[in-house]
């Protein structure tokens, strides 16, 4: 079944019914009020709406995302339900239920007590304060890669996430990473390597070049690999090199800076590395991420190869060619996800 932005309430209902037993449990909006204790504890807020902490009748804690009424006719809501209902993996967040009553829409997820990876990456956070060492960062990077590998290869229908970034990676009580927010996901048959897209989708700074300019190639699972690489670079270097006045993403995300320090052997000096083991872990993460952000999609490794590289030895890795980043101009709004028009789920 195809969903397009021209759909209305009845189209969404038909889409949900077509999933039958595959769809997660459907709740009433009144249930959400009970689950969240009348929206008492807010966990976060964004352009999509608000997230509240809640508790199911069996006592299990949950996170409830209540979507804004301005979310349009339901394309992102449908994307979320359609894609995540097909998944079951330790590194992909579990959608436990949803609400669809006219303009009232909500998504109920398993609760992730450590929040998003974002707060452990950006300026103002430190490895010491967050109790994350280099080994834990490496485990998180591998977990995310395994989650992507499952989406790309482990499902009957290949799922391209198309919005991989720290904000969309949630951490459980043991800091096990789980990929979340499938609002921009694209479903395609496993045999197809390239998907059709009418407009760019994703978050500036993480979008692969081919997503916003077809001259670089077709949009595929390699586009997720690029976003993953940019995210891992942030995990290694933090985001404290960003200057608000900088106009282009290629300057903001400093891969040139990291590449130069990798070659000179000075990477550890600027990242609080105190042992040879930490230095090897950081160098491995940097080398792998630099392979992931190669401009030409065919030059990037598959996510399966990424897992192998991260779990293998540093000595087996070659330093890739220096990537030349190319991204859309930076604006004050581009820290959030780009809105998409005329898209369809296949």
UniProtKB/TrEMBL annotation:
Extract one GO cellular component term from the record. Answer: membrane
The record's subcellular locations are: Membrane
**Binding positions for ATP per the UniProt entry:** 65
Which keywords, in A-to-Z order, does the entry hold? ATP-binding, Glycoprotein, Kinase, Membrane, Nucleotide-binding, Serine/threonine-protein kinase, Signal, Transferase, Transmembrane, Transmembrane helix
GO terms of molecular function: ATP binding; protein serine/threonine kinase activity
Chief localisation class: membrane
Which InterPro entries does the UniProt record give? Kinase-like_dom_sf, LRK10/LRL21-25-like, Prot_kinase_dom, Protein_kinase_ATP_BS, Ser/Thr_kinase_AS
UniProt domain Protein kinase: residue ranges:
37-314
- Topology relative to the membrane, per the entry? Single-pass type I membrane protein
State the PANTHER family in the record. Answer: RUST RESISTANCE KINASE LR10-RELATED
- Which family, according to the similarity comment? Belongs to the protein kinase superfamily.
Protein name from the UniProt record: Protein kinase domain-containing protein
| Organism, scientific name | Escallonia rubra
């Amino acid at each position: 079944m195809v969903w397009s932005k021209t759909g209305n309430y009845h189209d969404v209902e038909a889409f949900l019914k077509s999933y039958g037993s595959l769809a997660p449990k459907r709740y009433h909006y009144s249930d959400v009020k009970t689950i969240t204790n009348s929206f008492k504890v807010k966990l976060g807020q964004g352009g999509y709406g608000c997230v509240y902490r809640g508790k199911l009748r069996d006592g299990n804690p949950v996170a409830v995302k209540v979507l804004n009424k301005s979310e349009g006719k339901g394309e992102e809501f449908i994307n979320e339900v359609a894609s995540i209902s097909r998944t079951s993996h330790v590194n992909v967040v579990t959608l436990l239920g949803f609400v669809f009553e006219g303009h009232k829409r909500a998504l109920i997820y398993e609760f992730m007590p450590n929040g998003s990876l974002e707060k452990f990456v950006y300026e103002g956070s430190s490895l010491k304060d967050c109790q994350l060492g280099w080994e834990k960062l490496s485990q998180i990077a591998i977990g995310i890669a395994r989650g992507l590998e499952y989406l790309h290869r482990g499902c009957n229908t290949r799922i391209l996430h198309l919005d991989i970034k720290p904000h969309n990676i949630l951490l459980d009580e043991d800091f096990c990473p789980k990929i979340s927010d499938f609002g921009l996901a694209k479903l395609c048959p496993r045999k197809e390597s390239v998907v059709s897209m009418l407009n760019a989708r994703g978050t500036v700074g993480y979008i692969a070049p081919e997503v916003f300019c077809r001259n670089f190639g077709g949009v595929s699972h390699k586009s997720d690999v690029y976003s993953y690489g940019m995210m891992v670079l942030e995990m290694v270097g933090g985001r404290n090199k960003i200057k608000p006045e900088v106009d282009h993403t290629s300057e903001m995300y400093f891969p040139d800076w990291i590449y130069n320090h990798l070659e000179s052997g000075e990477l550890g000096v600027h990242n609080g590395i105190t042992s040879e083991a930490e230095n090897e872990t950081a160098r491995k993460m940097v080398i792998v991420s630099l392979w992931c952000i190669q401009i030409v999609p065919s030059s990037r490794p598959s996510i399966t190869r990424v897992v192998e590289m991260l779990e293998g030895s540093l000595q087996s890795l070659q330093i890739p060619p220096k990537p030349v980043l190319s991204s859309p101009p930076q604006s004050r709004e581009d820290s959030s996800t780009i809105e998409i028009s005329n898209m369809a789920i296949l």
